[in-house]
Amino acid sequence: MGLLETQKVLAQLYTNSELRESFFANPHVVGIELGLSVDEIQQLAQLAVKDVNIFGNSLKWKRLGEVRELLPRTARVLGKEFNALFWRYAETYLPKGIKKHQDDAIAFSNFIIKTAPAENIEPTWISDLVRYEKTWLSVYESHRLLQICWFRYAVHLDCIAKPTIAIWWRLSVLSPQQHFVIGLSCGTFNLHIFNFG
Fold first, then answer.
1. Residues 171, 98 share a domain
2. Residues 136 and 188 reside in one and the same domain
3. Over 50: is that where the pLDDT of 24 sits?
4. Average pLDDT of the segment spanning 101-117
5. In the chain, what is the greatest distance between 2 CA atoms, to the nearest angstrom?
6. In what order do the strands lie in the sheet with 146-153?
7. Distance (Å, rounded) from C-alpha 28 to C-alpha 22?
8. Using CB atoms within 10 A as the burial measure, which of 14, 70, 76, 86 is most buried?
9. 74 in Cβ contact with 130 (< 8 Å)
């Protein structure tokens, strides 16, 4: 295995606590499964478990801080549950690329959207709020000129049960993002316009 592959395994050890525990409990077996040579296994096994755990956790805390900034309303509403969900999610996904913080926040949003209804995470409208913030992130960096989303709750305001349509648009890829929300109720609607650019 080359240096790049060994670094990828090391990154997995830093970010995946289950793999880390398995490796340090039985480095030879797990190392072979990961495709490491005997020398590479010995080198990695000599790392101090405590130091690897500390560094791995510091990476997750850094990711959590970045994601919290990109999903501020979701973080505020979920409170400590946000952290707990992120730690679970971080075991399953490691972002790559130049927009890794945004990709991390979008992937974490998908995790919450999937997990919240299955585990009855409160409040009941959290999935709508997460989809709203996720769409902001997705649309802002994309080349889409138009994005329309429907929500069961007025996520742009106080999240009351009120059907809402949010529309993101721009005239060209280079023009600033525009956003407006239409709250629907009994044949009337309220329009809220936001500029984002």
1. yes
2. yes
3. yes
4. 96
5. 72
6. 146-153, 161-169, 177-185, 188-196
7. 10
8. 86
9. yes
For residue 172, which amino acid is it? S
The structure tokens listed for 141 are: 């960096």
Are residues 126 and 189 located together in one domain of the fold?
Answer: yes
- Give the domain extent around 33: 1-47
Amino acid at the residue 110 = N
Q: Are residues 100 and 81 both part of a single domain?
A: yes
Tell whether omega for the bond before 72 is within 30 degrees of 0, i.e. cis.
Answer: no
Same-domain status, 34 and 106: no
Cβ contact 180:165 at 8 Å: no
CA nearest to 95, candidates 116, 115, 109, 75: 109
Q: What is the pTM of this model?
A: 0.74
Q: Give the span between the Cα atoms of 59 and 180, in whole angstroms.
A: 36
Q: Which contiguous run of DSSP H or E holds residue 167?
A: strand 161-169
Give the chain's domain count: 2
What DSSP character marks residue 123?
A: S
* Whether residue 10 has pLDDT greater than 60: yes
Radius of gyration of the chain (CA): 21
CA 149 to CA 31: how far, in whole Å? 46
Residues 89 and 34 in one domain: no
| 33/97 same-domain check | no
Q: How confident is the model at residue 88 (pLDDT cuts 50, 70, 90)?
A: very high
Residues 28 and 119 in one domain: no
